Amino acid sequence: MAEKDFSNALANIKVPILILDQKWHRLFALGGKPETVKELESKENDLIKREAEIKQELKDLKKVKENLMASVMSNMEGTSDLVSKKLDDDKRLLEECNERIASNEDELLDIPNQTDEVNRELMLATMDYCYDKLRTNSSEAEEITEWIKDVRVKLKKNVIRKHNREINNKEIYSYMHDVFGMEVLNLFDMQNGQFYIGSADDKEAPSPTKTDENGKDLSNVDLEDIDLDAVAKETKADEEAEREAALESGDEATSEDS
Predict the structure, then answer these.
(1) Cβ contacts of residue 174 below 8 Å, gap of 6+?
(2) CA-CA to 107 of 20 to 30 Å: which in 11, 59, 97, 227?
(3) CATH T-level topology, domain 34-145
(4) pLDDT, tens digit, for every residue of 220-237?
């Protein structure tokens, strides 16, 4: 929308007094109000207070005016100097009262326009803040989404790696059992401390479920929507690359020794 069309459209919109709306205040609940918004809020608040003060002052002045008019009427036919002086004083005060009433009424007529102008400025400052916050939140949300995707991929890989290590432990322990026998294995188990064998679903494990060095069961990892086949292929490729690198390092070391 063109800037002129946008301004014309805004001019026809009736904007409620923002500082009287609790939901408007909640727009700034997390980040706090910027200085521009605070200044306009204070200015609008002063105008609203001033309007209330003028209305009360007008009410009081009109009561004073009524009393002065009653006093003037009662002393109109008096002839004494005292009554004449009282009449002159009442007339002077009545004139001053009328002037103050007229001045306050003029100011009272102008305050709604001033309040509306400040309120519109406050609306624009609020919209600038809110849309800037929306853009910032969206950008940060996208960054967090990418981070979550990256972590999910790594987590899936590690789930497969963990499962492979468990299977390897189970095989090693089973072969050790077959080669050396349970009696020898029990002695070495007591000597070498706790470790984990197999997974929670391995009902045929040759020994009770082992734990890590902190005593935590490593078998339960509950993940939703994991494409284990795809991750397994990727993990297998990674592990084969690691083995090839290890073999190459071993060959190099052998060549150097010879």
Answers:
(1) 206
(2) 11
(3) Helix Hairpins (1.10.287)
(4) 444 444 455 555 566 666
